[in-house]
Write a structure and sequence with these properties.
Blueprint: E1 14-15, E2 18-26, E3 30-36, E4 42-48, H1 56-72, E5 80-84, E6 91-95, H2 102-109, H3 114-133, E7 146-149, E8 152-155, H4 160-165, H5 183-187, H6 193-209, H7 219-228, H8 240-247, H9 258-268, H10 280-295, E9 319-323, E10 330-334, E11 413-415, E12 421-427, E13 430-436, E14 453-459, H11 476-485, E15 490-492, E16 498-500, E17 503-508, E18 514-519, H12 533-544, H13 558-562, E19 572-575, E20 578-582, H14 590-593, H15 612-616, E21 624-630, E22 634-639, E23 652-658, H16 661-669, E24 675-677, E25 693-705, H17 715-724, H18 727-735, E26 740-741, H19 767-776, E27 784-790, H20 793-810, E28 813-819, H21 824-828, E29 836-841, H22 849-856, H23 877-887, H24 892-908, E30 913-924, E31 928-929, E32 945-946
Parallel strand pairs: 14-23, 14-24, 27-28, 27-29
Antiparallel strand pairs: 1-2, 2-3, 3-4, 4-6, 5-6, 7-8, 9-10, 11-12, 12-13, 15-16, 17-18, 18-20, 19-20, 21-22, 22-23, 24-30, 25-29, 25-30, 26-30, 31-32
Helix pairs in contact: 1-3, 3-6, 3-9, 3-10, 6-8, 9-10, 17-19, 23-24
Pfam families: Pkinase, SBP_bac_5
GO biological process, one term: peptide transport
Protein name: Protein kinase domain-containing protein
Length: about 950
């Protein structure tokens, strides 16, 4: 309940027809009084300070706020009853709500749950949606500003209160309470309605748990967590949990609008928005009325709902339903508007030696206008990135269009032949695509057509200066382009098996150290130059001088080329159509490596690795050839009619190069791309949908124990960590359904490992067992354990979740040690290093050996300068023996069995603690057939065709 102070000397005793009885509060520009009307009904009166009575601007602002409050007040706020803004002492009379604040209720009664929490969610979001529709941003939404009245929650201290406390001008001033402030309020970026959506999410967490989502200790610590770490959602359950998580996305452009959240809540409450005639404003007002009614319904409870079977939904009240952030039920969004995609917080995993890529994209600003009113941008900003000037053709928004917010784009309706249309139904990064014929029916299978163009939205190559030759194609878009431009000796199929392409025969000697490769005759580069053994030898030597690393290091003479002492590989000999290769050690699975673009041939004009002209305009022998390329902007490929395996169905591939996943999705939903990769590393990535193309990836997330010293020396300590982890919660929290709990060191995508590894401690959390093992290791509560993490968003995000679990289960003092990427190896191999290392590892080719040997081989123990990857220093003679047996086995089945045995040895000793496995995901237009994800998560361009 509000505290009522007695009137002070100088306070008025009467204003108009109201008798003042007490003081409720005071701000910088006015006071709020308790009063009674002639019938004894209590009201609240807000009075402008006398010193502002002669200030025309202050009076005008006060009058404007009155008009805003009148539009808002019917919807879960304090109703406006009377006002006089023209007299000598301007005042506004509102309903007095004699009810405790939410913060008081929670302190007295504990967390809310069930229907109480659900009604609170709907009522408060109804109020925020009404406030936003009226052109106001609250900027200080928190439990103390929610009154828990008998007829439903009421939101106070907005609009009029803002006129009393501030200038009313929207700015980047950090007004608000730190625990509920959005990142943009902390950083000084412009503030829009999405800041209130964030505060609502944080308030719902507090209401459900009585704990702040980002802690309640020092202000700097809270602000740091808000900017860099995931929220602690505690016991908040579905379906509200997923919606709240979406509201707490760091990038404001990726959060749903208040209207979208409200409509999702109503749908989950079994009261989907009713059809309403009239323009958008009338439809939105009807939805607000429906929200206020629902908040006052005693029996209301949110219920999870299955995702719609078909994406063709009816238009409801001027709104088009769209899938929810949790994939539970459709969320309507104003016609012509779409929710922007979730922001990227992580980076694609490195292809060479499992190293991660460079830093994050920076979210773009919001938008504000003077006078406290928020207006949408005149031209949409894709994903908060560059302005729309760099995105020609994106649909623009009209001023004042309902539901348009920062970063929002028009509904993507893509023209198709025969009167058909592709309708994109979007929320966040979730997109469902269906193709409708002119009568609204589903179109049947289409016959592939020759010709046409596919448009890709891909992240710009991360190589220095944007080079796209095979020597710089370790992963990401560089690899995608290299596969389209070059065809090598071998090829990885979608299921991870390796088959010959230009290699007619690949033969080893008895020891698998000398290999003879017969090359298909009569093929050429796109410029007509022959592709022979010499072209392959030339390409290998060129690429060995670059970033070949683990893939080439055992070819004889590699070190000399890599160090610049030689220009050619001593162990590679070309004679006509035959290539002979000498290795420094046995490797019976050497052919598996040859599918990597690093082993592609190059023409004579390629020159050495520093020939930038060629690196930016490579001449290849693949299904396509490069027509044009502008680094970080666009690339255009056209069909290569000289390809050795016929002609591709497509005439052209155009690639829009972006800086983030958000921009890729913007291009897709804006009708500018037919394919957009979804970065499943992103903690804000879209939930998994049946219509989204997905496949299990090869990247494993893991914790590497430092076994040479410190608390992780003992097997019991390492097992304690493994049993303490709730892998399902980590995967779901961090990847939003893209990841899956890891049960082995090798991804199930690798042939022979589809059933996962034999890891009993990975099957599910067991707190009692974890504590028992920690006690056996002498590691009681309070034990300090370092957790080393690269200064990369993805790593920091999931490591914070791991830290919380280990603290909760074992009581350990887990310290995150964030290290710059360039200093990482030196830091984790230093003499004082102890604890755990966060690592993501992607094999360089589809083999378990490419995971187990570099990470755990006894000859791979890392130092500050040797480039090895056994960071934990683990060594086991039986394991090393099994690896040697495996790589010497000529039979594939026998090799797989031995590698599984080696993996079990490592898991039994918990040499590495698996956490989760990534998944590839992409959005693809169904105008094409044969366009799918390959084994590496790249689009299958060579087989794609128009329907």
């Amino acid at each position: 309940m509000a505290e009522i102070a007695p009137l002070r000397p100088g306070d008025p005793e009467r204003l108009g027809a109201y008798r003042l009885t007490g003081l409720l509060g005071e701000g910088g520009q006015g006071s709020v009084y308790l009063a009674e009307d002639d019938d004894g009904r209590r009201v609240a009166i807000k009075l402008l300070h006398a010193r502002f009575s002669g200030d025309a601007k202050a009076r005008s602002r006060f009058a404007a706020e009155l008009e805003v409050a009148r539009r808002v007040s019917p919807f879960c706020t304090a109703r406006i009853l009377d006002a006089d803004v023209e007299g000598d002492r301007p005042y506004i009379v509102s309903e007095y709500i004699d009810a405790p604040s939410l913060s008081e209720v929670l302190a007295a009664e504990g967390p809310r749950s069930g229907g109480d929490l659900d009604r609170l969610a709907i009522g408060t979001m109804t109020a925020l949606a009404a406030i936003h529709q009226a052109g106001v941003v609250h900027r200080d939404f928190k439990p103390a500003n929610v009154l828990v009245a008998p007829d439903g929650p009421r939101v106070i201290d907005f609009g009029i209160a803002r006129a009393l406390d501030a200038t009313g001008t929207m700015s980047s001033t950090a007004v608000g309470t730190p625990a509920y402030m959005a990142p943009e309020q902390i950083t000084g970026a412009p503030i829009g309605p999405q800041a209130d959506v964030w505060a609502w999410g944080a308030t719902m967490v507090y209401a459900a748990t009585c704990r702040a989502a980002f802690g309640q200790d020092s202000i700097p610590a809270v602000m740091h967590r808000i900017l860099h770490l995931p929220p602690d959602l505690g016991a908040l359950t579905e379906p509200l949990r997923g919606l709240v998580a979406h509201c707490l996305i760091k990038d404001p452009a990726a959060r749903p609008s208040s209207h979208q959240v409200l409509m999702q809540l109503l749908t989950l409450a079994g009261s989907p928005p009713r059809p309403a005639a009239g323009p958008g404003a009338e439809a939105q007002s009807a939805i607000l009325t429906q929200g206020a009614e629902a908040a006052a319904t005693d029996t209301l409870v949110l219920q999870p709902q299955a995702a719609p079977a078909a994406p063709a939904h009816p238009v409801v009240g001027g709104q088009t339903p769209i899938p929810s952030p949790t994939g539970q039920a459709p969320v309507p969004t104003p016609t012509g508007a779409v929710a922007p995609p979730a922001p990227p917080y992580g980076f694609p995993q490195g292809g060479q030696g499992g190293h991660a890529g460079p830093g994050p994209a920076v979210p773009g600003p919001g938008h504000s206008t003077p006078g406290g009113a928020w207006a949408p941008p005149q031209t949409p900003v894709p994903g908060g990135g560059p302005d729309a000037a760099s995105w020609p053709g994106l649909p623009t928004t009209s001023p004042g269009a309902p539901g348009k917010g920062p970063g929002r784009r028009g509904m993507g309706v893509l023209a198709a032949g025969g009167g058909a249309a592709l309708v994109a139904l979007i929320v966040g990064a979730s997109v469902v695509i269906t193709q409708l014929d002119g009568d609204g029916g589903r179109r049947g299978p289409q016959t592939p057509k020759q010709g046409g163009e596919v448009r890709l939205a891909l992240e710009a190559p991360l190589s220095e200066n944007g080079e796209i030759d095979p020597g710089h194609a370790g992963f990401g878009t560089g690899r995608t382009l290299a596969k389209a431009l070059f065809t090598g000796l071998m090829e990885v199929t979608k299921d991870g098996t390796v088959r010959p392409r230009l290699a007619r025969d690949v033969r080893p000697d008895q020891a698998c150290r000398q290999w003879t490769i017969d090359i298909k005759p009569g093929t050429t580069f796109s410029n007509g130059e022959p592709v022979d053994a010499e072209a392959f030898a030339r390409g290998w030597s060129r690429h060995a001088a670059g970033e070949a690393g683990y893939l080439m290091e055992d070819i004889k003479g590699y070190a000399a080329v890599a160090n610049g002492r030689s220009r050619t590989l001593e162990g590679v000999h070309a004679a006509g159509g035959v290539l002979r290769v000498e290795l420094d050690k046995t490797d019976c699975e050497f052919p598996k490596r040859l599918a990597d673009p690093i082993f592609a041939p190059v023409p004579r004009a390629a020159g050495d690795k520093d020939n930038r002209d060629y690196n930016l305009a490579p001449v290849g022998n693949g299904p396509f050839k490069l027509q044009s390329y502008t680094p970080r902007q666009t690339a255009t490929l056209v069909r290569n009619d000289r390809w050795a395996f016929g002609k591709s169905k497509l005439d052209r591939v155009t690639v829009r190069l972006t800086e983030s996943t958000a921009q890729q999705l913007s291009a897709f939903t804006g009708g500018l791309a037919d394919w957009a990769a979804v970065d499943a590393d992103d903690p804000g990535a879209s939930p998994r949908l049946n219509d989204m193309k997905t496949r299990i990836g090869t990247t494993q997330r893991m914790l590497v124990p430092i076994t040479k010293r410190g608390p992780m020396r003992s097997r019991e300590a390492r097992l304690a960590v493994s049993y303490a982890l709730d892998r399902r919660q980590i995967a779901d929290t961090v990847t939003h359904g893209f990841g899956r709990p890891a049960t082995g060191l090798v991804s199930p995508a690798v042939p022979g490992f589809s059933e996962g590894g034999a890891c009993p401690s990975c099957q599910g959390p067991d707190a009692a067992r974890a504590k028992q093992l920690a006690q056996a290791a002498g590691l009681g509560p309070g034990t300090r354990v370092n957790l080393y993490v690269r200064s990369i968003g993805t790593y920091r995000y999931w490591c914070e979740v791991v830290r919380q679990q280990l603290r909760q289960v074992l009581g350990w003092d887990v310290q995150l040690r964030v290290v710059d990427v360039q200093d990482f190896t030196r830091e984790v191999t230093g003499k004082d290093a102890q604890g755990l290392i966060a690592l993501g590892w992607r094999p360089d080719y589809p083999s378990a050996y490419s995971v187990l040997q570099p990470l755990l081989g006894g000859d791979q123990i890392a130092t500050a300068d040797n480039g090895r990857s056994n960071y934990g220093g683990w060594r086991n003679a039986a394991f090393d023996k099994e690896l040697a047996n495996a790589i010497g086995a000529r039979d594939e089945g026998a090799r797989t069995r031995v590698l599984r045995s080696a993996e079990k040895i490592a898991l039994d000793d918990m040499a590495i603690i698996p956490v989760w496995t990534d998944q590839w995901a992409a959005l693809a237009s169904d105008k094409f057939t044969g366009l799918d994800l390959d084994f590496d998560g790249d689009p299958t361009l060579a087989t794609a065709a128009r329907k």
